[in-house]
Amino acid sequence: MKFDVERSLILTAIGAFLFFAVGAVLTTVVPPMVDKTMWASEYPVHEYTEQELRGIEVYKSQGCVYCHTQQVRKLASDQRRYGWRLVEAPASESWEYVNDRVNFLGTKRTGPDLARVGGKYSSEWHWAHFKDPRNMGEKFPDRKGIYEKASLMPSFAYLSDEEIKDLTAYIQTLGRNINWRKDENGNPLNDYEE
Amino acid sequence: MKQDTAAKTMVIASTLFFGVALTMGLLTALKFIVPTVGEIEYLSLPRVRMLHTNINLFGWLLQANMGILFWILPRILHTRLFSEKLGVAMGVLYNLTVIGGLICIMLGKVKNVEYGEMPPPFDYLVAVCWVMFAINVFGTVAIRKVKYLYVTVWYTLGAVIWTTFVWITGNMFSQMPMVAGVNQANLIWFYVHNAVGLIFTPLGVAIAYYLIPKQLDTPIYSHKLSMIGFWVISFVYVWTGAHHMIHGPVSHWLQTVAIIFSFSLIIPVMAVITNFFGTFATAPRVTRMQGPIPKLLMMGTVYYIFTCLQGPFQAIRSVNEITSKTDWVVGHAHMALFGAFSYYAMAGIYYVAPKLSGRKLYSEKLGDLQFWIMTLASIPFFAVLWISGVIQGFAWLNPENTFVETLAALKHAHIMRFVTGGGIFAAYFLFLYNVLQTFFGKYGDEAVAETEPVAELGS
């Protein structure tokens, strides 16, 4: 008996579905079954507080993820760039994200990666930065000798003070499931960290 | 209900949405040069970017494809559309859904799903529309008067089936309470990649498979290549989602699987492209590039090759190290969705609009002009994004460069992107004018009616 797939709606549809289903199952259902670190952790992972959860909502609704990724890739350049004071940032591990009900791994870096940003800057710095981001950090002379603002980050001055506090609380937790923010002698990397 | 009302509604609506999407794109590009432009919450940079992608994907491209297929399917199957009423109802519901979703995005009520930001209930309503579309597609195929299903029909059926699962996985499963972290990211990237690969690719290719032979009045080059292209893509495409996380916090083996299958994609794409070019080559030399339709189809195919060769190569680990997370990816996405599939959709609208209004296209010359402006603007537009991506990628390798310095180096690229994007935007208005004139304008009645009635209407 000859199967003439092209004459049959049913055969074409079932064929297309089955071919698709193999890859679909093997890349969505099977990975978490094989790799438990995708949903469970053997190390303690930070549980978000009420305030931090509100911060996550702000982060999501403001679309921060479209310019800031949250993954230090397993690349020397990433680990060095997102480290602090000559201490390299450890690459992000999948178990670190198990409590992130809303993940922000991201695909595009118009701004720097934020996976290990927690504790790098003081909350006061973040406050000023959200209010007027282009007036912070570095400025460069251009050819005419005038200083220009190179950052493109939009101002979030329209957020309420509460929202900025929530957002900052969340950002300060980022990347701290691995305790890397100490120098060789075990001293914290910033003065304002206990 | 009058035949082809559904097709007409969706084609016109999508043409209008296209303009809004391009406006948002241009505004995004402008904000990269002058960040203070439109600095209010509802038009902040990330919101405008979300609006740009969502209007393009759902308001313009998906809707245009569905409208064009509502016209093509009955012709190819020698029957009528299964239910014109269902089609119109779907078109109206779909537009209301998209507008509702866009308002939510503007207000910041979003999901963390790229390309699927529309929150509930609107994402569920899109699914309802999709089921209505599926009923019409399957119904039309079921009541067909021809024995064999043509390639266009395979791809349409495939898209309908695959997209159902892709949409549910990305928009519903990914939001379930037990799904978190990297597992959620994996589901979302499964959706993001297959939204392009298993929604827009098959629908766009379906339209091109109909239009190229029809417009050139020559049979398709090779039936065997059509089969290879279809069956291999249905197997291979879906595996590639994890290539968005190369070097990232996901299992190494899953990345490798995604890379291998990204490379395998060269097989179906080359089959399809050889087929298209072969068909072009068999058409008479004098007439094969007359008017905007074959030009758009040809250029769309060229962009399709480039984007589909770029994809496999940028999935290699060493290349990915430089290109990933930079403007390169933006250029790649634009060439797929704008370069290849929007070109096919515009060709489709130029083809279908005259048939729907029962007279000739308002102006072929204007169409040609639009094609040339759009093409000459889009080539540097894509190129400048890749160049700036490579600059950015290499600049990041050196820890001496601060992040803001690497961004400042792209200033000229950002200006160039805005200027070339402006060219595309300007050309759009020629397209809009041409299409609207064809539907509603008053011009010479000497234009011959060339409507193509469907066989045995009302039987």
Note the beta-strand portion of chain B.
under 5%
Order of helices and strands of chain B: HHHHHHHHHHHHHHH
Query: Tally of extended strands of chain B?
Result: 0
Q: Largest beta sheet of chain A, briefly?
A: 2 strands, antiparallel
Biggest interface goes to: A-B, 74 and 81 residues
Radius of gyration from the alpha-carbon trace of chain B, in angstroms: 22 Å
Rg of chain A to the nearest angstrom? 23 Å
Strand adjacency order, main sheet of chain A: 1-2
Mean pLDDT of chain A: 87
Apparent shape of chain B:
globular
Number of H/I helices of chain A? 6
What low-confidence regions of chain B span 5 or more consecutive residues with pLDDT below 50? none
Basic shape of chain A: elongated
Distance between the termini of chain A: 78 Å
- Name the poorly predicted regions of chain A: none
Overall pLDDT score of chain B: 92
Can you walk me through this structure?
- The complex is a heterodimer of chains A (194) and B (459).
- In chain A, 32% of the residues lie in helices and 3% in strands.
- Chain A is mostly helical and 194 residues long.
- In chain A, strands 1-2 form a two-stranded antiparallel sheet.
- The mean pLDDT of chain A is 87.
- Chain B contains 15 helices and no strands.
